[in-house]
Amino acid sequence: MKKNVILFSGVIILFMFATLSAQSCDILYFCERYDTEMGEVNAGDRFYSGNLTVMTLLAAPVYYTKIYIQLDKYNPRNGEFEYYSDVEFTVEPDMDYMYFNDVYFGEKGFYRVFMLDPTKNNIVSAIVEII
């Protein structure tokens, strides 16, 4: 009985550490829109073409006042992602949770989406499918 309690406690502790480390990294994700009262509306990784909202949650404040959201579209002919477009946004340096409305995904396909600093270095990225 004592072994089971110790084993069970160990599993719970491991689960707690795994959960903490999984939440301590930067993430970028997508939703149809962001509402100040409801939050993210219809978050996912597969959408119809048009405008989407790009969301970011960073482990630390962004530090910059200007960032870029860059889209690279997958080209199945050569098997590579190619530059598609970018949009500049103004942010507050102390922000760690941000949303960027009306990012246009005009064509079907897979997009690699980057949040870039003012010198175009990657902060965080993710992939989304447009159908």
Helical fraction equals 10-25%
The assigned structural class equals alpha+beta
Helical segment count: 1
Q: What is the string of helix and strand elements?
A: HEEEEEEEEEE
Report the average pLDDT across residues: 86
The CA-CA distance between the termini, in Å, is 54 Å
Give start-end ranges of low-pLDDT stretches.
4-22
Number of strands: 10
Global shape? globular
Strand content: over 45%
Spatial arrangement of strands, main beta sheet: 4-10-9-6-7
* Alpha-carbon Rg, integer: 19 Å
Main sheet summary: 5 strands, mixed
What does this structure look like?
By secondary structure, this protein is α+β, with helices and mostly antiparallel strands. It is 16% helix and 52% strand. The protein is built from 1 helix and 10 strands. It has a 5-stranded mixed β-sheet with strand order 4-10-9-6-7, with no helix packed on it. It has a 3-stranded antiparallel β-sheet with strand order 1-5-8, with no helix packed on it. A hairpin with a 4-residue loop joins β6 (66-75) and β7 (80-90). It starts with a helix and ends with a strand.
Task: Give a short synopsis of this structure.
About 15% of the residues lie in helices and about 50% in strands. The protein is of the alpha+beta class and about 130 residues long.
Distinctive features:
131 residues; globular; alpha+beta; 1 helix; 3-stranded antiparallel beta sheet; 52% strand; 16% helix; 10 strands; 5-stranded mixed beta sheet
